[in-house]
Amino acid sequence: MSGPEQWGDTVDRREYLAWGYLRRVIEASRGDLLELLWPGGETSQPADVVDVAERIATRDTGLPDGLLQATANRYCADPRQDAEIARRRGMRLIFPGCPEWPRRLDDSFFSLHGAGVGSDSTVRGLSTAPFSLWVEGEGRLDRLVQLSVAMVGTRAPSRYGREVAQQFATELGLAGYSVVSGGALGIDRVCHEAALDCGASSIAVLASGPDVDYPSAHGPLFRRIRQHGCTVSEYPPGVPPARHRFLTRNRLVAGLALGTVVLQAPLRSGALNTANWSEAMVKPTLAVPGPVTSAGFQGCLKYIRDNRAAMAICAGDIREQLEPLGRGAAPGEPELPFGKTALTLSETMVFDACAIGSEAHAGSVSDVQAATGLSGNLVMRTLRDLEKRGYVRREGSRWIKAPGTR
Amino acid sequence: MSGPEQWGDTVDRREYLAWGYLRRVIEASRGDLLELLWPGGETSQPADVVDVAERIATRDTGLPDGLLQATANRYCADPRQDAEIARRRGMRLIFPGCPEWPRRLDDSFFSLHGAGVGSDSTVRGLSTAPFSLWVEGEGRLDRLVQLSVAMVGTRAPSRYGREVAQQFATELGLAGYSVVSGGALGIDRVCHEAALDCGASSIAVLASGPDVDYPSAHGPLFRRIRQHGCTVSEYPPGVPPARHRFLTRNRLVAGLALGTVVLQAPLRSGALNTANWSEAMVKPTLAVPGPVTSAGFQGCLKYIRDNRAAMAICAGDIREQLEPLGRGAAPGEPELPFGKTALTLSETMVFDACAIGSEAHAGSVSDVQAATGLSGNLVMRTLRDLEKRGYVRREGSRWIKAPGTR
Q1: Its family (chains A, B) (predicted)?
Q2: Do the chains contact at A304 and B311, CB–CB below 8 Å?
């Protein structure tokens, strides 16, 4: 069972099985595993995944203790079983570097950690980046998320809540958005159906294997989603849902979308957990208000009142918050002369907000956001772009102006 | 009809009649009149009001042309008639300097002009301070407004809108608040009645004389208000309401209260005009959300979404915004050493946000607000207090640090 032979014949096949093995023996994700896989940081090339998988399978005592303990019950798993199930059912495992891997996820977790949300986070649930995803469906995940909105809410919506969810999901679907949501009763379902009904795609991020239809009554819904989009999960085929997996799943809902809208949520609601992730990832986070006399809307109302969510009165409010992202400089934005090349106005703002070398407590993503007033995603995107072009560099969670660029 | 003899016998009587004469011949208020009455500025002692009234009555060509034109049709008015009606009915005319004059009105208009809202304002309606008010009722206006909240809204509320208005007005009434509102059908009425029903007082600011019951169906309501509070107006006894008087009246509703709450308002609503005044007076301005599918709430929703109003989910949200005002430094707030004396933390923040002499474009009330994050009223109150104590002085609409205080 252990040893290289189980990973198959060709290099590609061996890698695929190694990723699948890790996905099977690791519950969701782990920081110590990520450090082994990407020793140069999350944005670098991965280490030899076959080697990492083999070390776990052979109980290499050089591995972190936590990782050995976490895999003590599952390390004998045979990845060929998952591969065979996946082949028969048409599922695939994707990981950073695959063409289908959604780059936005990397950005989301990069922002998350740049904002100082780590293992000791107040955001409930695992804050570590996913190292791979199981996907089932006709839609290609990387394309589906290009214009995507997370739409979440209570499993027990009011008639008004359903009505608004349907209306907003339809309008966003017609505008070309994919809906990202869980697979639950209530708001999740209303939003998926509205998107599919108008010919748009949707993505259900599951707290079980991507092939597990939970609740079972949603089997027909998931089949429709897989025809026009996909189901996605950190869990391998056949894994049943579990309470902790829902919280952990929520970070992927927020992470895959441009921003999150809470349609209807009482004070205690998984939808607010997703909103927390969206907020921590410095993404646009919105909520729809309802009657102050309705318990079912107290979560939305509180988040709006406390400025943790912007108010979405209409689908246009959501588009206004989401669409500038990725467009970079607004059309017609003048480029400012800057050294030998040229920066746009927003690039200049972001650059100016980065720290100079000696400023020890400046240059975090939130500093840059505060100084520029730009959205979190635009700030992140601009920072990475400026980094590539040599204007700034990253030092821990700080962004520093490169020498000679001032 | 003209000449000193008409102002009566005693000095007090002559002054009273002179104020009453001005109230009768001037529609609401006028900047040129205020300049004649308070040549040293609004906060100084007034000029001889009998003299000003006589000059208008005798058509003194030295008066501003606008003032002469504005009084051309009414200058023959005999103030003894109003005084006699008022005596019989138990009304009184109050003006700055009277014990019953609400000092908060002066603060409100001081803030308004400090914030740069003048005759060319985008706030619809007259922005000039009232120079006197007619009052009818058992309640003493200055005392009623000490803890008061403007509660305004549409004349055609939904059941939900009525329900929330009643609930919030009751809770605020039980907490000791007077309700300030207009006298209209709908939200105005619901709020007045809820306050009176729980033993609180209310103030109806009318767009007609304080003795004119409009709409006439509100006669019994206005009698209750006068028993436990008062009706107030810039218009003398018997003057009928008119369209422009409603807009002009709204600034007094906002001006008399600590802050304004919009209970339910569609996109076009007089209640939003009152909210605009409240905002321009840098007072807490709140709105209650409702269903996004209801036209009747679009005004509230828009103001919340656009951060022009804070969201009031419960009466506690309103109290939280209103009650810190006037308390000055929070209990237990440490005093910081500052020169020879001591400033509280908020005083230090306000002081630090004032301009130094050479900064030509700094130190406005909104600058100080932005820099400190304190509420508008607390900023104004602190500035005035620091002015009295010699730390800062006013220069036009800017606040400057006094020399030697840095």
Answers
A1: Belongs to the DprA/Smf family.
A2: yes
